[in-house]
Amino acid sequence: MPHAEHTDKKYEEELKKLREDILYMGGLVEDQIQKAVKSLVDRDSPLAETIIQRDQEVNRLDIEIDDLCIRLLALHQPAGKDLRFITTALKITTDLERIGDMAVNICERALELNLEPQLKPYIDIPRMAQIAQWMIRESLDAFVRKDTDLALKVCKDDRQVDDLNSQVFRETISFMIEDPHTINRAMKITFVSKYLERIADHATNIAEMVIFMVKGKSIRHLKELPQSV
Amino acid sequence: MPHAEHTDKKYEEELKKLREDILYMGGLVEDQIQKAVKSLVDRDSPLAETIIQRDQEVNRLDIEIDDLCIRLLALHQPAGKDLRFITTALKITTDLERIGDMAVNICERALELNLEPQLKPYIDIPRMAQIAQWMIRESLDAFVRKDTDLALKVCKDDRQVDDLNSQVFRETISFMIEDPHTINRAMKITFVSKYLERIADHATNIAEMVIFMVKGKSIRHLKELPQSV
User: Fold this and answer.
1) Which residues in B lie closer than 8 A to residue A66 (C-beta atoms)?
2) Residue of B nearest to A62 (CA)
3) Inter-chain touch B91–A87, beta carbons under 8 Å
4) Which of B65, B68, B81, B91 to mutate to test the interface with A (most CBs of A within 10 A)?
5) Which residues from chain A sit within 8 angstroms of residue B81, using beta carbons?
6) Which has the closest alpha carbon to A142: A204, A56, A51?
7) How far is CA A148 from CA A22, A132, A153, A209, A228, in A?
8) Which residue of B57, B75, B94 is the best one to mutate when testing the A interface, meaning the one whose CB has the most A CBs within 10 A?
9) A106 with A37: CB under 8 angstroms?
10) Which of A5, B10, B99, B182 is paired with B16 by a 20 to 30 Å CA distance?
11) How many CB pairs under 8 A join A and B?
12) Core vs surface per residue A200-218: b (16+ CB within 10 A) or e
C-alpha cells in the first residue's frame, strides 16, 4: 500500500517536526530569560528592548506549533500514545509562551531599575535564572524522550528556585526596613524574583504533564514528591 | 444508518457534557476566588482552610475534562470547528486549574495576615476579585457560545484590574514608607493583589483563545485592542 506508507512517512515527519519545534521554542525562551536577566545585571537597557521585541517570535512559534498539532489531529487522527503526546504539546506551548511573557516582564522591570542607582549586586537572581533555564530544557527533553525520571528531577529542582525566591524576599524586606528610600527598587527586585519563580513553576507544570502523559498519574499538588513514578 | 446516528447522538451528548463541565469548573473557581477573598476580608481562617482543601476538586475536574477531550478526539475524530473547540477546551482547563491555584495562594496569604493586626480595610481587593470573577464567567460564556464580542469585552475589562492592582501597589508602598513595621503585611497585600491580577490575566487568555478559535486571529500582545474582531 504505497499510499498508506506515504501517509505514514509524512505523519512520522510531522511528529518529528513537532518535537523539534517544541525544543526550538524552548531554546528560544531559555535564551530570552538569560538575556533578560543579563539586561538587568549589566544594566543594559538596549538589550532589554531587543528582548521585548523578540517576544514576537515566541508568540509566532506558539501559534505555528498549535497549528501543527491541530493539523496532525485532523489529518492523521492519531490514537493512544501519539494522541496524548500531541495534546500535551498543545498545553506545553501555552506554558512556553507565558515563560516568554515573564522574560518580557523581567526586561520591563530592568528598564525601570536601570534608571535608578543600583541597589545591590545581583547574586541570587542570576542563579535562579540559571536553574529555571535548566529546568525548561530538562522538562522538554523529558517530553520528547518520554523520560519520567528526568521529569521528576525537574519537579524536585523547583524547590531550589522557591528557596532562592524566599531568600531574595527576606533580603529585599531587610533593605526596605533599613532605608525606606530603597522600597521602590526593592519591590521591583522582588517582582523579578517572582517572575523567575513563576518560570520555574511553568517548567514544573511541563514536567508534571510529561509524567501524566507517560504514566497517567498526576503528581501535581502532592504534599511530598514521590521517590520515583 | 442507525449505527452512525447513534454515534452522532453520543458525540453530541459528549460535546454538550464538555461545555457543561467547563462551565461547572468555571463556576467552582469563581466561588473559590470569592471565598478566598472573603476569608481575607472577614479574617476567617477556617474558611481559608476549607477553600485550600476544596482545590482538590478543581484539580480533579481538570483531569476529568482533559480525559473527556482526549476521548472525544480518539473516538470521534472531529474536524474543523469541533476540533478547534476541543483543543481550546484542553487549554482552558489549564487556565482554570491555575486560577484555582491562585485562590489557594490568596488563602495562604490570608492565613498569614489573619495572625497580625489588620493593616487597613480592604476596598480595592474585593472589587478586583469581583471583576476577575466576572471576567472568568464571561470568557467561558464566550467560549461555549463562540461569542467573540463578549470575548473582546473580557480583554478590555482586564485593564480595570490592572489599574486597581497599580492602585493597591501605590497604596501599600506609601504604607511601607510611612511605617516600616507595616512592610511585611503590606507586601502580602501586594501579593494578593498580584494573584488577582493574574487571575484576570488567565480569564483574558481564555478570551483571546476564544477569539483565535472562532476567527483564527490572534489579538494577544497587540499594543491596542481592536474595536471589534
Assistant:
1) 87
2) B218
3) no
4) B91
5) none
6) A204
7) 18, 18, 9, 10, 8
8) B94
9) yes
10) B99
11) 70
12) bbbbbbbbbbbbbbbeeee
Give the largest Cα separation in chain B, rounded: 77
Give me the residue from A80, A90, A184 closest to B90, CB to CB: A90
Is the distance from CB of A29 to CB of A96 less than 8 angstroms? yes
Q: With an 8 Å Cβ cutoff, are B87 and A87 in contact?
A: yes
Shortest distance, CA A75 to any CA of chain B (angstroms): 9
Q: In chain B, what residues touch A65 (CB-CB under 8 Å)?
A: none
Cell numbers describing residue B229: 474582531
pTM metric for this prediction: 0.94
Q: What is the ipTM of this complex?
A: 0.91
**B2-215 CATH:** 1.20.58.220
| Residue A85, C-alpha cell as written in the block | 503526546
In whole angstroms, what is the distance from residue A200 CA to residue A227 CA?
Answer: 20
Q: How many CB atoms lie within 10 A of CB A176?
A: 25
Amino acid identity, residue B38? K
**Chain A partners of B69 at a C-beta cutoff of 8 Å?**
87
Residue pLDDT tens, chain A, 229 long: 445 555 788 999 999 999 999 999 999 999 999 999 999 999 999 999 999 999 999 999 999 999 999 999 999 999 999 999 999 999 999 999 999 999 999 999 999 999 999 998 999 999 999 999 999 999 999 999 999 999 999 999 999 999 999 999 999 999 999 999 999 999 999 999 999 999 999 999 999 999 999 998 888 777 788 888 8
The domain limits of chain B are 2-215
Place of cell 501524566: A212
